[in-house]
């Protein structure tokens, strides 16, 4: 359980992964035409959005990160976001990119390196994670070529972006180690007592699943693919009826990423279930197995393991989660202090993102402006971050 959104700096944003990750977030929603209605996108200059010690922060990079965080806040475009929210997200994205540039230069100053072996391993791990995310949603996983085409990058560009990010995270880890962050039990307990509402758990159902996806070389399966998938699921259902355990059949027959765990989805809030799971799950008793369910993604069987009623998580269950969050918040403060001398110096950092001054004054009451009139949107960490998970995705390059 993660009680609050991660505020720490450690970045996972890499544009090779961004386009596909955003598509995974918003696969069930039709994204709005941001170029016509988004106050932030209208404010982005043709050139860089900022300069840090002579190095540009490109508008494409900014839009990738801004769109990814906007997608997380709005559920891939399903929930509206007013202009103030968009400006807050834009300031947060800008701060991350400026801090990343400062850390990258610090990594070079310290002579840090990334080996080819480490880069290869990270590249392969991120590719596999993205493919598993799509498979878990019932979608055909994209190939590396699909991701590169969507991101508008070559493989070499994607690896260069990832190498830079790995250097940023290396120096970030070094700075935090040097600061020797400590979070005591008293801090953890005080946070729990004063923020009890964060630990309310909704009604949940613990499910196992078997998922069979129609196999196809293209994106749209034909009738034959659907018939073959149904036959595979019929065989799986027959094995369960013949006495094999649900977990055994899931390991050998399911196409879902959780097949290695016997199809165990763990406890899931009932309101987070897809409709084709929610209806049978709410009718079933623990131990029961559903009939075969067809969805737009394929065929499914679910088993209800247990129901869990709404309650408040006990302190001992969330103690280490709270400790981690408080440590990450302190790390964010340390990072802000480290970057402040550079980002607050108008001779070293210039921001060219012209956001609406009225909204900017509400979100960030004391923005500094340099002599040329560019808006310095307090990037060093003084504005509030949007309340969202920090796993990054992004939008396609313009």
- Fraction of residues in helices? 40-55%
% residues in beta strands: 5-15%
Tell me, what's the shape?
Answer: globular
Q: Give the topology string: H per helix, E per strand.
A: HHEEHHHHHHEEHHEHEEEHEHEE
> What is the highest CATH level, the class of the largest domain?
Mainly Alpha
The main sheet orders its strands as 5-4-7-6
Stated plainly, the CATH topology of the largest domain is called: Triger factor/SurA peptide-binding fold
Rg on CA atoms, Å: 23 Å
| Secondary structure: number of strands | 11
Number of domains: 2
Low-confidence stretches: 1-32, 367-373, 375-398
Please identify the structural class as seen in this structure. alpha+beta
Main β-sheet, in a few words?
4 strands, antiparallel
State mean pLDDT (0 to 100 scale).
81
Give me the CATH architecture of the largest domain, please: Orthogonal Bundle
Individual helix count? 13
The N- to C-terminal Cα distance equals 37 Å
Description:
By secondary structure, this protein is of the alpha+beta class. It has 2 domains: 231 residues, Triger factor/SurA peptide-binding fold, CATH 1.10.4030; 107 residues, Roll (Chitinase A, domain 3), CATH 3.10.50.40. Helices cover 49% and strands 12% of the residues. It is built from 13 helices and 11 strands. It has a 4-stranded antiparallel β-sheet. The chain has a 3-stranded antiparallel β-sheet with strand order 2-1-9. Strands 3-8 form a two-stranded antiparallel sheet. α3 packs across α4, α4 crosses α7 and α4 crosses α13. The chain is globular, with a radius of gyration of 23 Å. The N terminus and C terminus are likely disordered.
């Amino acid at each position: 359980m993660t009680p609050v959104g991660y505020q720490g700096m450690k970045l996972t944003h890499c544009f090779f992964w961004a386009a596909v990750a955003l598509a995974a977030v918003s696969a069930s929603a039709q994204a709005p035409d941001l170029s016509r209605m988004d106050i932030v996108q209208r404010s982005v200059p043709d050139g860089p959005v900022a300069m840090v010690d002579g190095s540009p922060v490109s508008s494409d990079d900014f839009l990738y990160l801004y769109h990814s965080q906007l997608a997380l806040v709005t559920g891939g475009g399903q929930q509206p976001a007013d202009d103030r929210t968009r400006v807050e997200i834009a300031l947060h994205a800008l701060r991350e990119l400026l801090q990343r540039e400062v850390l990258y230069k610090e990594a070079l100053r310290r002579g840090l390196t990334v080996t080819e072996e480490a880069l290869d391993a990270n590249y392969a791990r991120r590719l596999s994670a993205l493919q598993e995310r799509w498979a878990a949603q019932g979608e055909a996983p994209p190939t590396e070529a699909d991701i590169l085409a969507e991101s508008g990058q070559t493989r070499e560009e994607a690896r260069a972006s990832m190498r830079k990010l790995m250097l940023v995270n290396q120096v970030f880890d070094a700075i935090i180690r040097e600061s020797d962050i400590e979070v005591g039990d008293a801090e953890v307990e005080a946070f729990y007592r004063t923020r009890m509402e964060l630990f309310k758990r909704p009604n949940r159902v613990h499910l196992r699943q078997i998922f069979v996806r129609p196999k196809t070389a293209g994106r749209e399966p034909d009738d034959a693919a659907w018939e073959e998938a149904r036959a595979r699921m019929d065989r799986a259902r027959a094995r369960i009826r013949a006495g094999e355990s649900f977990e055994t059949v899931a390991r050998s027959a399911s196409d879902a990423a959780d097949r290695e765990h016997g199809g165990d989805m763990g406890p899931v809030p009932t309101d987070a279930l897809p409709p084709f799971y929610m209806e049978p799950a709410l009718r079933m008793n623990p131990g029961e197995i559903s009939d075969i369910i067809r969805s737009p993604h394929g065929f499914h069987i679910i088993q209800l393991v247990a129901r869990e009623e709404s309650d408040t998580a006990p302190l001992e269950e969330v103690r280490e989660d709270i400790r981690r969050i408080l440590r990450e918040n302190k790390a964010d403060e340390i990072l802000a202090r480290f970057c402040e001398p550079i980002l607050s110096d108008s001779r070293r950092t210039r921001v060219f993102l012209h956001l609406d001054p009225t909204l900017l004054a509400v979100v960030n009451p004391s923005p500094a402006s340099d002599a040329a009139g560019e808006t310095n949107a307090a990037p060093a960490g003084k504005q509030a971050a949007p309340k969202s998970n920090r796993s990054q995705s992004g939008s396609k390059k313009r």
